[in-house]
Backbone:
């Protein structure tokens, strides 16, 4: 009984279930709705590209001329600063100590120069004049003694030794008088000119050293190169700041009063782009936000593509022509570094006219 009825029924039910599963699995899956409605090109013929928003001054990777430990940041992310305003400062204790030593050396050199330039001191002249007067009196006394000895009528009244002694005393007094007069003249003449020039050179050298150190101190304060906004800070107080190009800049800065968008056009479409061609940008995620673009320039060098959109048909070995447009942000909710969909008006592919070379 079981073999006669139950087994055939089970077999039929199994076949029906298999047919149901196959039919159910072959139904087409409904397409998932897009996360956001795609933008629509406003031109009948166009070239589409991906645009990256950047500052009108280009995104400036702020670096430091000198290596050192970051002492403090004078700005925070989002601050708008004027050109020349301090952005961050490096530890300057070593240079300030050097500057203090150089200031002391400069003061010493200036004191030495001032002393040379003030010579002779007024109080030094009277003693020198007194020495001249003393030497003059000694000379006149020796001269009188010699004249008395030479005027004797009888040579035997004075011994030869005494006469010689008076002659030598006269010569000695004469030379002491000349020496005192020369010393007084030298004192009145003041410092020797070459000594003053050497002292002036020492002062100039000390000042130059101070100025060099002051310049190094000023370089430890990194300042804004243009008016702009702080876009990103990637370092912290106490970290060591290195010189040279860095993979991650210490601080990213740029002028965002007017925004630029760098459009990457596939090299296969580059021939269709014309300098000055109208273009429109759409914010990704909301096609209701759009803005006309103003042509700035074409970068005349085709570069490897760096920005990947994730499209399955996208080639990673593509080279692109970069076209720069500008726009006013206004109330647009966009930020530097954001991607936008760009449509550039272009000639139809079937146009017979030969395209002219793009101009920047």
Residues:
């Amino acid at each position: 009984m079981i073999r006669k009825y139950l087994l055939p029924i089970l077999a039929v039910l199994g076949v029906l279930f298999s047919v149901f599963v196959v039919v159910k699995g072959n139904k087409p899956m409904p397409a998932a709705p897009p996360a956001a409605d795609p933008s629509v090109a406003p031109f009948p013929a166009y070239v589409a590209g991906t645009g990256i928003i950047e500052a009108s001054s280009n995104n400036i990777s702020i670096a430091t001329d000198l290596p050192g430990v970051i002492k403090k940041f004078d700005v925070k992310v989002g601050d708008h600063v004027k050109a020349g305003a301090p952005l961050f400062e490096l530890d300057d204790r070593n240079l300030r100590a050097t500057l203090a030593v150089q200031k002391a050396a400069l003061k010493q050199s200036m004191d030495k120069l001032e002393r040379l330039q003030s010579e002779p001191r007024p109080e030094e002249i009277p003693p020198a004049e007194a020495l001249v007067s003393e030497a003059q009196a000694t000379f006149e006394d020796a001269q009188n003694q010699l004249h008395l000895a030479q005027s004797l009528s009888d040579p035997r009244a004075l011994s030869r030794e005494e006469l010689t002694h008076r002659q030598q005393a006269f010569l000695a007094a004469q030379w002491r008088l000349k020496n005192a007069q020369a010393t007084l003249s030298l004192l009145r003449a003041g410092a020797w000119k070459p000594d003053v020039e050497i002292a002036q050179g020492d002062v100039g050298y000390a000042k130059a050293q101070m100025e060099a150190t002051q310049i190094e101190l000023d370089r430890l304060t990194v300042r804004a190169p243009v008016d702009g906004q702080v876009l990103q800070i990637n370092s912290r107080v106490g970290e060591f700041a290195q010189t040279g190009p860095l993979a991650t800049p210490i601080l990213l800065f740029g002028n965002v009063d007017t925004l630029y968008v760098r459009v990457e056009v596939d090299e296969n479409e580059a021939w269709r782009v014309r300098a000055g061609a109208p273009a429109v940008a759409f914010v990704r995620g909301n096609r209701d936000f759009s803005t006309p673009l103003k042509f700035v320039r074409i970068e005349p060098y085709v570069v490897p593509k760096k920005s990947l959109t994730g499209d399955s048909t996208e080639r990673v070995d593509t080279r692109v022509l970069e076209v720069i447009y500008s726009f006013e942000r206004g109330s647009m909710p966009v930020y530097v570094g954001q991607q936008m969909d760009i449509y550039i008006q272009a000639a139809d592919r079937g146009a017979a006219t030969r395209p002219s070379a793009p101009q920047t």
Notes: The two ends are 93 Å apart (CA to CA). The domain at 46-56+256-345 is CATH 2.40.30.170 (Elongation Factor Tu (Ef-tu); domain 3). DSSP finds five helices and 15 strands in the chain.
